[in-house]
Design a protein that fits this description.
11 strands, four-stranded antiparallel β-sheet, mainly beta, 119 residues, globular
């Protein structure tokens, strides 16, 4: 059974860095796009970054140049390297796995890891 478990969330100061990890208990097949979403208090859940099986990446404008998403298929893990963190990055970050177009199938979500950026 495919399960996603996030880790790495922490309290950091503005300008600091964190690396989030998402471990899959099952197989991360190349048909799956892996993604990180975040949800701030009182806000909608938004897509932060995604990476396809062929390593095509996508980032929301607010994190471009600061965040880097990557995947390690043999380790069944996806990462989000976050640099130059800002208070507005504070949110619960969720790992997501979804079949890449044109494939279809089950979509998986992790339970989230909290990132707090504050002095």
């Amino acid at each position: 059974q495919e399960q996603l478990v996030e880790s790495g969330g922490d309290l950091v100061q503005p300008g600091g860095s964190l690396r989030l990890s998402c471990a899959a208990s099952g197989i991360i097949d190349r048909i799956y796009t892996m993604a990180w979403y975040r949800e701030a208090p009182g806000d909608q859940r938004e897509l932060v970054a995604s990476v396809t099986g062929d390593n095509t990446t996508q980032y929301t404008d607010s994190v471009k140049g600061r965040f880097t998403i990557s995947r390690d298929n043999p380790k069944r893990t996806v990462y989000l390297q976050m640099d130059n963190l800002k208070p507005e990055d504070t949110a619960v970050y969720y790992c997501n796995a979804a079949p890449t177009f044109p494939y279809s199938g089950v979509i998986y979500w992790g339970k989230g890891t909290l990132v707090t950026v504050s002095s």
